[in-house]
Write a structure and sequence with these properties.
The complex is a heterotrimer. Chain A has helices spanning 2-31, 36-41, 48-57, 64-76, 89-124, 129-141, 146-160, 174-181, 183-186, 189-198, 201-208, 211-248, 251-258, 263-300, 305-314, 318-346; strands at 81-82, 87-88. Chain A is mainly α. Chain A has a domain at 90-172 and 210-314: MetI-like (MetI-like fold), CATH 1.10.3720. The mean pLDDT of chain A is 82. In chain C, helix 4 packs across helix 5 and helix 5 runs parallel beside helix 13. The model of chain C has no long low-confidence stretch (mean pLDDT 83). Chains in contact: A-B, A-C, B-C.
């Protein structure tokens, strides 16, 4: 019983998935016939001695499972190093992850703001031109290559009316950063959580009351978000529409009317029942935002995790690839968990 | 040859001709017409149906699946969803205050105040009637709350427990917090009855309340409904295709066929002296448990499509006694004895 | 739209005639199935969205087949070598302009319209093959997992989870960066294979290194494509498995495979067909995205996503026409499949079909 054990059970099933993801990543990396160390160091700086050093450090001469356990050890103890930048991978990641989270959050906000109202309208005005327009929007949205829309929007909103800019990322003041970094010492558990959230510049801005950071972030990053809302908003709207219509045609809605419930209460029943599929699809979309980040970050020149991952793949930088994949898998799994919890909160039949 | 509309009247009309309701009557449905505008064509689901219900009385609508019983009762409080449309007739209802209203002409807000408060429904399938995301207690709470603004959750919860106890649900204090999926089918149906009774309605419309249940639970539920009816002096409209149930609980019976009432009368009249060929065949199709059954009786043929129903009597294609006139002209309701009538041309000669 | 119905009906009967010739009495035995197909054809011909989608798909198919043949400019000739001004020439639309390429030129001064004819072939082939290889893989795994249950189910579903948790783009990128070398070696040594793939993509055999890159995008996509199918098929199999007719088939001693393919698959196939149609659109865009990131073929292969990414450097000063035109080409290709899928969803749904059946009957009685 209880939500706690439900979450615990779900968490346990995630462990094999995460390990599997890591193993598959590693096996793919291992299958590469070229010499990764060459790619890391670069041809010019090549020097047999350093080459051997690095090879020894990452156990390239040992069998694959020893390499893998070595990488796992480093990864899980947080000591993994980026061999190209010679810094701890997690430091690199935590510097970039905040921006990617910002892009994802802004995109998600646009998605919800466009998809849900349109879906509700389409359901209420079923079989009217408006409904048809939403259907077409969903179809065109899922047919448009994301990068082409990015360029269109840049042409429209950057080049022509300059409502955004394409360089730099708004950061809170140094004072603010120091305050947040010192939080874990002042408040025990919550401080750590707050510090983790504070890595995202936008959240740090909110915590320190520097709201101009939030505004600037929106101005800097609203284009990819808007693109996302336009691309997937129609699809979300269709899901909202269909599940709402399904719920509205359910027998318990007729029974609710037969009981003389007020219009608002009847809608409450319909909306809550329509939420289950919508939550699932929104969750999947949020997970997809991170993998989609690579293209958005390339086009909009955003120094986020997607770019880092892309560069790592291009340079066969396994430690970074492994760490990033691990991160993405954790995000995916966490989003799934959140969806499951929301499910259980909405629908009592899910709880055991 | 067209039929004079004035001749098509219910037995009730002979007794009471005023638009007002008769002595003791709480509901009178007159010439109700419901049509469904579907892709396939216009479905004449209910064609000129009339009946009445008195206080404390149980009437029963009997007929095969798809003959328009449920649609008729749902049309009483205009619960017909698109593509369905109520196209004619009147539904007079005596409110608690004594005022008589036509439910088909009432403004939506007043109608809402009557639904679930003065007229309550029990739908066929308790599983799909209940919203799976809310507890039984919440269902009762919101039903009460919808009809009295100053209902407090604490009190409605107490009322809910009391109602669940009345419908013989064990440990109602626990059950009130249960979700529908945590209960058995019989328990769910009892909960639906409790929800429907939450505002002590004057008229209860029960649509096949026992169809999905075991025989033993069926008997319990029927017994329960009878007791509750006596306690609250409710009028009850019971829809069923089970003639055993009808004989058990109903005072008067309306037999429906293909969207029309073909025979009406008291239980004794219908069971001992059926007049319409359809009623006769229907009664013969009920197996007698005391006799060894060689072959189950059935009525040959199928229910006609209600899109383009046949002209004349709708039972004529299946009727073993059909005469020439039957396929041309619709038979009117012909009274055979006091309060007992049937729509059949064979009775005209008498 | 009447002729589309008649045309599809004719196709159905040609197929039925072929089956009849192979095994006599087929038409009689399957008359209700033929009737159902006719209904689908009728429902489809009544859907404007579906007809437009089908038309677009048909046109892209034709263009993909003949595109590289009718293209009037070889993609391997760079005009800027002769004259630097050919780079990113703006569109030249009659009547106000004449003499230079209609829709302008790309980075190397090549006629954009001619290049897009090659590009359509590449995108079309990749998207179709990815779905045709990825979907069956997922379907078979899903069928086995759902029907067998137990440990096999557990293993397959965990594997599915792993691949779903994997960022698809990352896996594809990783693959696209590993595989080309190996495939290049294979193509180098095998003349027949080289000629086959060059013909398939409408490229010259000389570009086998680029063809290797294309094939690796392919394989990468196939590998990320199957898990969705496996999950959906498994779910549907679970709901069908307990039905009485499957019990009956089991009791009558049919083998597992014939139960799976003859009795279970036909019952779960409709949503899969719809999903496959939508997925061809997604695959078109996905492949373009990979090339956009520079993971696909390089110069001189005129892959649509790749040309757009090159144009991105000069965007929007001189190359916006490239992004806009090639964007519209990609949009149209994907939209065709999406429209078709949207209509198929209605056509394959027995509920909507019943309503249409009646109208068709009425019409046939009249006509």
């Amino acid at each position: 019983m209880g939500l706690g054990s439900f979450i615990a059970r779900r968490l346990i099933t995630f462990i094999p998935t995460l390990l599997g993801v890591l193993l598959v990543t590693y096996l793919i990396a291992y299958a590469i016939p070229t010499d990764p160390v060459r790619a890391w160091v670069g041809e010019k700086l090549m020097n047999p001695q350093t080459l051997e050093q690095i090879k020894a450090k990452y156990k390239f001469n040992a069998p694959w499972y020893e390499q893998f356990t070595f990488l796992m050890q480093e990864l899980l103890t947080g000591q993994l190093e980026d061999p190209v930048r010679h810094r701890n991978v997690f430091d690199e990641i935590s510097e970039r992850f905040g921006v990617t989270v910002e892009v994802a959050i802004i995109g998600f906000l646009f998605l919800v703001a466009i998809g849900i109202p349109l879906g509700l309208l389409a359901a209420v005005f079923k079989d009217t031109p408006l409904d048809f327009a939403v259907r077409i929007m969903a179809l065109v949205g899922s047919s448009l290559p994301a990068f082409v829309l990015y360029y269109f929007l840049i042409l429209l909103l950057f080049v022509n009316i300059r409502t955004t800019y394409l360089a730099g990322i708004p950061e809170p003041t140094l004072d603010c950063k120091i305050t947040i970094a010192s939080l874990p010492q002042t408040i025990p558990v919550i401080g750590h959580v707050a510090a983790a959230f504070g890595k995202v510049p936008m959240f740090a801005g909110i915590m320190c009351g520097e709201f101009n950071v939030v505004g600037d972030t929106f101005r800097r990053l609203y284009l990819p978000g808007l693109a996302l809302g336009l691309l997937n908003g129609g699809f979300i709207a269709r899901i909202v529409r269909n599940s709402l219509l399904d719920a509205l045609s359910a027998e318990f809605i007729v029974y609710a009317k037969a009981r003389g419930l007020r219009r608002l209460s009847v809608w409450k029943h319909a909306l809550k029942n329509a939420m289950v599929p919508v939550v699932t699809v929104l969750g999947l979309n949020f997970g997809g935002l991170l993998s989609g980040a690579i293209i958005a970050e390339t086009v909009f020149n955003i120094p986020g995790i997607g770019r880092y991952m892309y560069e790592a793949i291009m340079r066969l930088n396994f430690p970074v690839i492994i760490a990033c994949t691990f991160l993405v898998a954790i995000v995916y799994v966490t989003v799934n968990l959140v969806v499951d919890i929301l499910y259980a909160l909405i629908d009592p039949r899910i709880r055991y | 040859m067209s039929i004079d509309l004035r001749r098509r009247r219910s037995v009730g009309d002979i007794v009471e001709k005023r638009l007002d309701l008769g002595e003791g009557e709480i509901l009178r449905v007159k010439d109700l017409v419901v049509k469904f505008y579907t892709y396939a064509g216009v479905v004449h689901a209910v064609s000129s149906v009339s009946f009445y219900v008195k206080e404390g009385e149980t009437i029963s609508l009997v007929g095969e699946t798809g003959c328009g019983k449920s649609v008729t009762t749902r049309a009483i409080t205009r619960l017909i969803e698109s593509p369905g449309r109520i196209e004619g007739g009147s539904v007079l209802f005596r409110r608690r205050s004594g005022q008589v209203v036509d439910l088909l002409k009432l403004d939506p807000e007043t109608l809402r105040q009557i639904r679930g408060n003065e007229i309550a429904y029990i739908f066929q399938d308790p599983t799909s009637s209940l919203d799976p995301l809310y507890t039984i207690g919440y269902h009762i709470h919101e039903t009460i709350k919808a009809h009295s603004k100053n209902a407090v959750k604490k009190e409605t919860l107490k009322k809910a427990i009391d109602l669940l106890r009345q419908v013989l649900i064990p440990s109602p204090e626990v059950r009130v917090k249960n979700y529908p999926h945590e209960m058995s089918g019989g328990m769910r149906q009892r909960s639906v009855i409790a929800i429907s009774l939450s505002n002590t309605p004057r008229l209860l419309i029960a649509d096949e309340p026992t169809t999905n249940l075991d025989v033993t639970i069926q008997a319990q539920i029927l017994d329960l409904m009878r007791k509750l009816q006596e306690r609250y002096r409710m009028g009850v409209i019971l829809i069923t295709h089970n003639l055993g149930v009808v004989a058990d609980v109903a005072d008067r019976v309306y037999v429906m066929y293909a969207g029309k009432i073909v025979e009406e009368g008291s239980v004794e009249q219908i069971f001992y002296n059926p007049q319409h060929p359809y009623t006769k065949l229907l009664l013969r199709a009920v197996p007698d448990p005391t006799k060894r059954i060689e072959k189950l009786e059935s009525i040959p043929g199928i229910v006609p499509s209600l899109i383009n129903p046949p002209p004349g009597c709708r039972f004529q294609p299946r009727c073993p006694f059909a005469i020439d006139k039957c396929s041309r002209v619709e038979p009117p309701m012909i009274e055979v004895e006091d309060g007992h009538g049937a729509a059949c041309w064979l009775l005209e000669k008498k | 739209m009447e002729f589309i119905y008649r045309f599809l009906k004719k196709l159905i009967w040609i197929y039925a005639g072929m089956r009849e010739r192979i095994s006599g009495g087929w038409i009689q035995k399957n008359s209700s199935r033929i009737r159902e197909w006719e209904l689908m054809a009728y429902a489809y011909s009544k859907s404007p969205i579906g007809v437009i989608g089908g038309l677009i798909v048909f046109i892209t198919f034709i263009l993909a087949v003949i595109g590289p043949m009718i293209s009037w400019e070889p993609y391997w000739e760079y005009k800027i070598v002769i004259n630097e001004t050919y780079r990113y020439m703006p569109p030249c639309l009659p009547p106000s302009c004449s003499g230079s390429p209609l829709l302008g030129t790309d980075e190397w001064g090549r006629d954009l319209l001619a290049m897009s004819l090659y590009g359509v072939r590449i995108s079309f082939v990749i998207s179709i093959v990815v779905v045709l290889l990825g979907a069956p893989l997922g379907i078979i795994l899903g069928l086995i997992a759902g029907y067998k249950g137990g440990l096999i189910d557990e293993v397959i579903m965990r594997l599915t989870d792993i691949f779903l948790a994997f960022p698809g783009l990352v896996l594809a990128i990783a693959f696209a960066s590993i595989l080309p070398q190996r495939i290049r070696g294979l193509l180098e040594s095998n003349d027949l294979l080289r000629a086959f793939f060059a013909g398939l993509f409408g490229l010259r055999e000389k570009e086998y290194a680029q063809i290797a890159a294309l094939i690796s995008i392919w394989l990468a996509m196939v590998i990320v494509w199957w898990p969705g199918y496996a999950r959906i098929v498994r779910g549907s199999v679970l709901s069908v498995r307990e039905m009485p007719f499957i019990e009956a088939a089991k009791l009558s001693g049919l083998s597992t495979w014939s139960i799976l393919f003859k009795h279970i698959l036909p019952n779960v196939i409709s949503p899969i067909l719809v999903m496959m149609t939508f997925d061809i659109a997604t695959a078109t865009l996905f492949a373009a995205a990979l090339s956009f990131l520079g993971l696909g073929p390089q110069e001189p292969v005129p892959e649509l996503g790749f040309i757009i990414s090159k144009a991105g450097y000069w965007f929007p000063e001189s190359s916006s026409h490239v992004v806009i035109y090639l964007g519209i080409v990609l949009l149209t290709m994907a939209l065709g499949w999406n429209l078709l899928g949207d209509a198929l969803r209605d056509v394959l749904d027995p509920r909507t079909r019943r309503a249409i059946e009646y109208r068709l009957e009425k019409k046939e009685k009249r006509g």
